[in-house]
Every structure is written in structure tokens, then in C-alpha cells.
Amino acid sequence: MKRSTFFYLGAAACLIAYAVLVVQQQHDWGGWILLLFFFSLAMAFREHRLLKGLSYTLMIMAVVSLAMYYPQYFKTYRGFKLSELIIPLLQIIMFGMGTELSLKDFANVLRMPKGIIVGVVCHYIIMPLVGFGVANLFNFPPEIAAGIILVGCCPSGLASNVMCYLAKGNLALSVSVTTISTIVAPFLTPLLMRLLGGSFIDIDFWGMVWDITKIVIIPVTAGLAFHYLIHGKMKWLDKAMPLVSMAGIGIILTIITAAGRDNLIKVGALLIIATILHNVLGYFMGYWSARILRFHERDCRTIALEVGMQNAGLASGLALAMGKLSTAGLAPAIFGPVMNISGSSLASWWHNHPPAEHQESESQEVGKSGSQEKQLSSQ
After folding, report:
1. SS3 category, 265
2. pTM for the full model?
3. Of 240, 230, 208, 192, the residue nearest 93 (C-alpha)
């Protein structure tokens, strides 16, 4: 029996067991059974080339299930509020982002200014306005609506770079847009939040500027310095940082879910629909904005992913800094997993449908290598 088959059978058994518990209204073990279901499915997906990218999201859903069923374990520990871990964890994640950057990434701005300008402008126009429209369309309570807008006003994150690579997009453009959108976030995010979210909650502009600076700019700068001073000299640390970042995101989402569990039960289904709509419209409008401006297909895909994928972790940290983790923090907590599922699916589709210019370049490379082989054989 293949290992993937074993895990699929395990997931099916857990799902049946969970359904039986729900019917019998025996919820004491429901969270653990649901955790085993998602874990087994994640292990099975890891054996599949196209589904492998979804395994991390399923792991997140596994631990979030525990937070929904047993929120008391993820709020405090011996009198210590676990929500106080969120900002330090975000700073570690941003530090890890900085270690992956180099001055060459900033040099890309000079090589492809049009693409970067369009990517950043579309990101900070489309997502905030779509978030504002969605928040008003669903008529959520003010603080939850503000959370949707907050997600839309944040920069793009590292996940978009991974998805761009899988989608055979323009990775250099993706990294550059992520970098620039992050750098300008301390000014644009508070400004857009005040303009669009100010009708829902009070926004402390300068307070948010400082929050983004200490959560993003300072750690990223420290990570960039680390890249040049120590990067490569401590290989174990280089390998550990991505794992630490992934674990940090999981912990943050679990804490937010536990904190907002009661509100999530009330508006959860509608909020998930609103979040999916926000995310998908970002991809659609980002892609067609680039198409209208006559960008190459690779660049269109890149801009679509950069517009549709947000730094949900930063939005969570800002919600915490505003003292609204259990309300404004809900949309970011949902947006993260939704974004990874949709982004992985879209990237997998595009991966199997390479852009025309990519196919042409590959055929040219094959032709060159074939002609070189003929020359060598004739010699």
C-alpha cells in the first residue's frame, strides 16, 4: 500500500468519525478528530506533486480546529496572555524575509520600473477599494468590517513570491513588488486605513505608522544586514528561518482564532465568503489591469498574484496593536489560509499552462543545445 493511500484512508476514517460525533452531539473529542483528519490529508497531499503546496495550509487548518473547539488553551498560559506573542513572532517572520533580500532585488527597480510601479499602484488601489466594497456589501459589524479593509490596505507578502515561482511568472518582478510595497507600507497603509476604515473605527495614523515600522521595517532592515554579514556562515540558521516563519504563522493564526472564536461562530460563514470574494477579485482585477496595459503573460500572472495576496500576518499584528484582535483580527486570520489555497490552486493551473513566451524561450534553448550537439558530433 502506498503511503499516500494509507493517509487518504486515515483521513476518510477521521471524517466519518467526526460526522458521527456531530450527529450524536458529542463535541468533547471533535477537535482532536478534526485535527487528525486535516493532518492525514496534509500527509497524503505531500506525496502529490500538484497538491503538495496545500499541505501547509491543511496543517494550519488542523491547529485552528483545536482553537475553535478548545479556545481556552490558546488564550493564556499560567497568567501570560498568548496574544503578546504575536508581534514578536511577526518581527521574527519579517526578519526572515529580510535575510532573503539583497541589494540586487532593489536594483530590479531600475531594470523594470514600469512593472513594479503598476504592481504596487494596483495593489494599493484595487485591494483597499475592493475591501471597502465587500465590507459595506455584507454589512458586517464595524470592527469586523474594518478588519476586511485592513487586510486590503496591507502590502503583499512572501507567499506571493512562492506562488509566482510555481506559476512560472516573473519572479524578479514579484520580489521587487513585494519589497517596494512593504517599504511604502508605513505611510500608505495608515493613510488608506484612515480614508476607508475611518468610518468604521477610530484610526490613530501616527500610531499605526510606528506599529508598521517596528513590525516590518526595523526587522526587515536587520534581516538585510544579516544577509550581508552572516548569511551563509551559519547554514543551520539559514535552513531554520523558513521553518520558524511557517511555525510562527501557524501560532499566530491559532491565537487569533481562539481570541475571536465567539465572533467567528456568529459571522464565520459570511466572513469566509467575503474573504474569498476579496481575494479572487484581487487576482482577477490585477491580472486584467496588466493585460489592458499590454504586459506579457508572465508579468500579468505576477501582478495578479501580487495584488490578490496580502500580508495577513501584518494585518493581524495591527489589529492586536489597536486592541481589536478578536474582531478586526478575524478577517486576516481567515484571509491567510484562503489566500494560500486559492494561490496554490491558481499557481498549479498556470504551472500546467506555461505562458507562450516561456514555451518559446524553452524551445529556443532546446534548439540551441541541439545545434551545439550537432556541431560537436561533426567535429
Report:
1. helix
2. 0.79
3. 240
- The DSSP symbol for 231 reads T
C-alpha cell at 358: 516561456
Dist CA 160 CA 103 (whole Å):
20
Distance CA 43, CA 10 (A): 10
- The rounded distance, in Å, linking the Cα atoms of 357 and 362 is 9
User: pLDDT truncated to tens, each residue of the chain (379 aa)?
Assistant: 678 888 899 999 999 998 998 888 877 888 889 899 999 998 988 887 767 767 877 888 888 888 888 888 888 888 888 888 888 988 888 887 777 776 666 666 667 788 889 999 999 999 999 999 999 999 888 999 999 999 999 998 777 887 888 788 888 888 888 888 988 999 999 999 999 998 888 888 899 999 989 888 888 888 888 877 776 666 766 677 777 777 887 888 888 888 888 877 877 788 889 999 999 999 999 999 999 999 999 999 999 999 999 988 888 889 988 888 888 888 888 888 888 778 878 887 888 788 875 555 444 444 444 544 445 444 4
Residue type present at position 60: I
β-pairing verdict for 76-77 and 80-81: antiparallel
β-pair partners for 80:
77
Biggest distance spanned by C-alpha atoms of the chain: 79
Which phi and psi angles does 264 have, rounded to 5°? -65, -35
Are 270 and 98 in contact, with CB atoms under 8 Å apart?
no
